[in-house]
Write a structure and sequence with these properties.
The protein has 164 residues and is mostly helical. It folds into 2 domains: 89 residues, RNA polymerase sigma factor, region 2, helix turn helix motif (Rna Polymerase Sigma Factor, Chain: A); 74 residues, Arc Repressor Mutant, subunit A, CATH 1.10.10. Helix 1 runs antiparallel to helix 2, helix 2 packs across helix 3 and helix 5 packs across helix 7. This is RNA polymerase sigma factor. Keywords: Sigma factor, Transcription, Transcription regulation. Belongs to the sigma-70 factor family. ECF subfamily. It comes from Flavobacterium macacae. Pfam families: Sigma70_r2, Sigma70_r4_2.
Length: 164
């Protein structure tokens, strides 16, 4: 791979690494698993980057690769490895930003989201990232109408989980 392409990849990855970290947090429960998934997603992005044509935004393409990688690894890991309960994971919040009530709400929300299936997790994640339905549908490979319908169902499912 030439140096120009490598520099372009590194810049795009730096600019969009928060996307990958958020996906890692959604599909892992623990610092080591998070680091492993981040590394694997980065490797998959690197391998696929020469084929990135720019037909969509880099972020849309990166979401798709990252989510596919996370879902594939998540499915493999659930077959053979026990997972850690969400309450046992570490939460990293800057001291000055700490809000106990908000932290508890986030714990409850993540606990509820962990109960969703892989596609539902991906959809709610992108929705919470303020992605429009067109970008969500492109990333997940479903129609825009289907994304909206699924989102409404997920909202109802989360309400039932959070308010039984």
């Amino acid at each position: 791979m030439n140096q120009e392409l490598e520099q372009s990849f590194v810049k795009q990855l730096k600019d969009n690494q928060n996307i990958i970290h958020k996906i890692c947090r959604l599909y892992t429960s623990g610092e080591d698993a998070h680091k492993d998934l981040f590394q694997e997603i980065t490797i998959q992005l690197w391998k696929a980057f020469p084929k990135f044509r720019g037909d969509s935004k880099f972020t849309t393409w990166a979401y798709r690769v990252a989510l596919n990688t996370a879902i594939t690894l998540y499915r493999k890991s659930t077959r053979s490895v026990a997972t850690t309960e969400f309450d046992n994971t570490k939460h990293f919040i800057k001291q000055e930003d700490y809000n106990y009530e908000e932290e508890e709400q986030l714990k409850l929300m993540y606990k509820a989201v962990y109960q969703l299936n892989d596609i539902e997790k991906a959809l709610i994640f992108m929705y919470l990232e303020d992605k429009d339905y067109q970008e969500i549908s492109e990333t997940l490979g479903i129609s825009e109408v289907n994304a909206r319908v699924k989102m409404n169902r997920i909202k109802g499912k989360l309400k039932k989980i959070l308010n039984p």
